[in-house]
Design goal:
By secondary structure, this protein is of the alpha/beta class. It has helices at residues 4-15, 22-34, 38-41, 51-65, 70-74, 98-108, 125-133, 146-159, 196-199, 216-224, 244-253, and strands spanning 76-79, 82-85, 115-119, 138-143, 164-168, 180-185, 229-238, 256-263, 269-276. It is elongated.
Length: 278
């Protein structure tokens, strides 16, 4: 009979060398199979695993060793302290994307009942994080993918966040002439032939790659922002660490001022912000 403590040790050894986060991954997968939290694992090392649980754990380990993101294996990812459902129809939310939430909330400070737009919402991570912090805000989240919008809407319902409206369409197309106090976007920004895409093979390519230089989506978003921002409203976009100069040029060319790039916790240029008007 296999017990939880032994199963955890075996799983850590099995994943070691196959994933850089073997210890954490082992805890997450075992907790998922047992239906408990990672913290609770420490209190139940003697819990016996059924044969079915052991088979499930072995199958998950094989998928992890094949490179599948841990979030797809469990169907969950934490972002901004929100427990989000994720599927292979959406990108796995990254910690560095929380920078967009921080910048947007800072920009909306002092604005009563602000209106915010999230372009390419995916799982709804950014939109729901901001909406949870600003229940007085009216948040609109746009995505081209019907499957992604279904995931985002389900997250909103499960989290009890009711101030987000979801629209299907390509970037600004479903919005007509609507304007917002802030626009945020984490669009695809990887060059279409970049080898890094091979390491992201499980995630939706259309949410990752954007033309030869990875700037196609960013160019559309920066060019259209002036038509959908209130005066002094801000556009905030995530981009690759080497794309700061190009994105700053796109923002300036799109008629935005006070353009500035912000660094993430790793010190990399990660998000660029521009303002409509002075």
């Amino acid at each position: 009979m296999s017990r939880a403590g032994d199963a955890l040790s075996d799983l850590r050894r099995r994943l070691a060398g196959g994933t850089p986060s073997a210890a954490i991954d082992a805890e997450i997968l075992l907790a998922h199979v047992l239906g408990c939290s990672r913290t609770a694992l420490a209190t139940r090392p003697e819990q016996a695993l059924t044969r079915r649980q052991l088979r499930a754990l072995a199958a998950l380990a094989e998928r992890r060793l094949a490179g599948e993101p841990i979030a797809y294996l469990t169907g969950r990812r934490e972002f901004w302290s929100l427990d989000l459902e994720v599927t292979r129809e959406v990108l796995v939310p990254r910690p560095e994307t929380e920078l967009l939430v921080e910048l947007a909330l800072e920009g909306l400070r002092g604005i009563a009942s602000p209106e915010l737009l999230d372009l390419g919402t995916g799982s709804g991570a950014i939109a729901l994080a901001i909406a949870s912090e600003r229940p007085d805000a009216s948040v609109t989240a746009v995505d081209m993918s019907v499957a992604a919008l279904a995931v985002a809407a389900k997250n909103a319902v499960r989290l009890g966040i009711g101030n987000v409206r979801f629209l299907r369409g390509s970037w600004y197309k479903p919005l007509e002439a609507r304007r917002f106090h802030a626009i945020v976007a984490n669009p695809p920004y990887v060059a279409e032939h970049d080898p890094v895409l091979m390491t992201l093979a499980y995630e939706p390519r259309e949410a990752l790659a954007a033309g030869p230089g990875g700037l196609d989506a960013l160019a559309v978003i920066c060019a259209g922002a002036k038509l959908h921002l209130y005066d002094r409203g801000a556009l905030i976009v995530e981009h690759g660490a080497a794309q700061g100069p190009a994105v700053r040029a796109l923002c300036t060319g799109g008629g935005l001022s006070r353009v500035k790039t912000h660094r993430d916790l790793a010190g990399l240029e990660r998000a660029t912000q521009g303002t409509l008007g002075q």
